[in-house]
Amino acid sequence: MSDASANGGPVLAADGTPLKVSLRRAERRLRLRAFLLTAPLLGFILLTFIAPIGDMLFRSVENEIVADTLPRTVEALKDWDPASGQAPDEPVFRALYEDLKVAVAEKKHTQVGQRLNYEKSGISSVFRKTGRRIKRMDPDKPLKPQFVNADKDWGDVETWRVIKQFSPRFTDGYFLAALDMQRDAQGVHLRDEKDRIYLTLFWRTISLSAVITGMCLLLGYPVAWLLANLPARTSNLLMILVLLPFWTSLLVRTSAWKVLLQQQGVINDLLVGIGLIDDAHRLALINNQTGTIIAMTHILLPFMILPLYSVMKTVPPSYVRAAKSLGANDWTAFWRVYFPQTIPGIGAGAILCFILAIGYYITPELVGGTSGTFISNRIAYHISVSLNWGLAAALGSLLLILVLALYWAYDKIVGIDNVKLG
Length: 422
Prior knowledge:
This protein is mostly helical and about 425 residues long. It is about 65% helix and about 0% strand.
């Protein structure tokens, strides 16, 4: 370091630059180096986590297909009022004719029909039938009767109301459908009770996930305590048994439960054999909520045992012995001294089990039947079968919001800082 400061000048580094400048330059290099080291991980998270979530959120409100495929029709419908009770006039049908000529040539008319069919059943066939007849229509004659002749639904006010309602580029229709709601001429309201499925599925997903988490805690706590207090050699041997399910395919484990739980399966045969139930009253343990709870509790149990075990290993046994030496009985020593120190492990295990359970798909699909499936099974159905990706994205977005809300509530009640893995 230079002695320039002795003469009232700035403190210099060994290379003659001011010390402050040199330090700032060194800090920038360190920050750049740290960023470059973490850049691959950040890029991986961005591509595999942030981008898919962002795409899902966008798809849940995106509705560009109608406006892009029928631009003239959308513009012509701005002056039409569905409350009039009459189908649009000739200019709207002429605009539709011009749009469909282009859409049929580009083979997009079936796509817009499929999109609108999610909102009103039957519109998809209307667009397909009209697409086959559009070339035979005479633009020099009135087009409205020609469209109605191609399909009578073109004279239905409801068909045009749906087209106008879902003509904007962004829509809340998917979210309304995901909440068992709909918008019509009377406004937004719940669907008929017989048509409500998603709110029931959301409630079932939350309630069964909570039950599964509770079952994992009841079964996992004694096992974790045993592993933490046995001699190391025995504990390590038992730990292998706890980890053994991780070495077996999830599909194999779930299929094994189908064999065990069916009415002619091992468990029912055993109960009949020992005389607990008779052969005519075998238990229904599969294709219902009972099967889902049993199979998923078995699958998620290690995720509760491992955090509990790691926390219990850090609890000094001398604390319980000290409590007993001061007059506490076994229950008081456990409840007042030992149990509070294991709450961080309970919190970690509960979060792991609940979050994993709420998004499970394979196990409820195989053993849940109609009453034991989760909302994730319906999301998979819309992605792979009905191809209604917008509704699937809305359901996924609501599930994400629900998990974040529960996480926030958990943080307020328990405190996320109290969650530890050891």
